[in-house]
Amino acid sequence: MTAITDEYMQSMLAGIKPYCMVLLKPVANPAVENVQEILWEHGRRNFGLRADGKISIVAPVSKEADVAGLYIFNVSEEEAAEILKDDPAVKAGIFEFATYPCTSFQGDILK
User: Fold this and answer.
1) CA–CA dist 86, 45 (Å, integer)
2) Structure confidence by residue, pLDDT tens digits, 37-72
3) 44-79 exposure pattern, b = at least 16 Cβ within 10 A, e = fewer
4) Which residue among 4, 19, 41, 70 is least enclosed by CB atoms within 10 Å?
């Protein structure tokens, strides 16, 4: 493991930034006919929010679980909630969500 100095930690902590983590949760037995069409538009919207810089990470969960996905938003918790209230899959009752304020380091990436 790489050795991390106190100075390095202090410099990293000085650049910490607020984000909003969102857990997307499936609704049990949604009464929706055109689920695949709605999920397609949900995905299209995710791409748009990502392109607009509102979302840094979109991470769908790839197995059946009590969580359907994770977002890291570059906006406040309140703005993330407002954005998600207009999501097609949330409006249709396929997903619900929970928001959590969090912090991270600018420039963190998935590899």
Assistant:
1) 10
2) 999 999 999 999 999 999 999 999 999 899 999 999
3) ebbeebeeeebbbbbeeeeeeeeebbebbbbbebee
4) 4
104-to-15, 18, 37, 60 alpha-carbon distances in Å:
9, 7, 34, 20
Nearest residue to 94 (alpha-carbon basis) of 53, 37, 54: 37
Chain segment 5-36, per-residue pLDDT in tens: 999 999 999 999 999 999 999 998 778 889 99
Provide the 3-class DSSP secondary structure of residue 86. coil
Give first-to-last CA distance, the chain, whole Å: 17
CB atoms within 10 A of CB 32: 15
- C-alpha 46/C-alpha 67 separation (Å) is 17
Average pLDDT over residues 80-104: 96
